[in-house]
Amino acid sequence: MLRTVRRVRLHEEIVIQLAELIRQGQLQPGDRLPPERELADRLGVSRSSVREALRILELHGLVARRPGTGTVIAGGTPQGLIRSLTQLALHDVIELRLIVEPAVAALAAERATPADISRLEDILREQEAQIQGGETGAAADAAFHLAIAQATHNRALVRLAEALAEILAVSRDPCVQTPQRSRLSPASRAPQGRFAGGRPAGHGGPHPPG
Questions:
Q1: For the chain, which domains are there?
Q2: Which pTM does this prediction carry?
Q3: Whose CB has fewer CB within 10 Å in the chain, the N or C terminal residue?
């Protein structure tokens, strides 16, 4: 069910709630949305916020406004609509990466073994080859971050990294990736100094697995 919006960016929260209804199967392609006034009342927001959310959805091809019918969910599969809606939350995904990844990398710098470091360097070379070949390097970027989590030797963090992989994949999607952007990704710049010389910088050697 729709619930009262409490976030500051009201139109983004409306989009997120519609995505959840699609995930639950409560909204299907071709379904007609309630009128703007009704949506605003049910969500506890202004009609202008609803109008902005619908405008964004329409720009992304997720809804269509039909004379005499109103606003309907666009054609296509629910999975495709969910994917497109998730793209609208890219800012939140990037924010999540900025919170989680530095802490994981710091622990990996303390605990990485020579084998871990070798694996990370192999992935970096693979990513560079992908970029040189005109690819985005997104696949190697994903592998790199999982390897970073594995280098912490913390099973809970590895499980967390695996669980987050699908969410974080949004920020590596080909729709938002370019070779130039990939060169600026954490996988292409962070570890080379930290793991220089085959061991974490500033440490006498890798700590034993925790």
A1: 10-87 (1.10.10.10), 90-198 (1.20.120.530)
A2: 0.48
A3: N
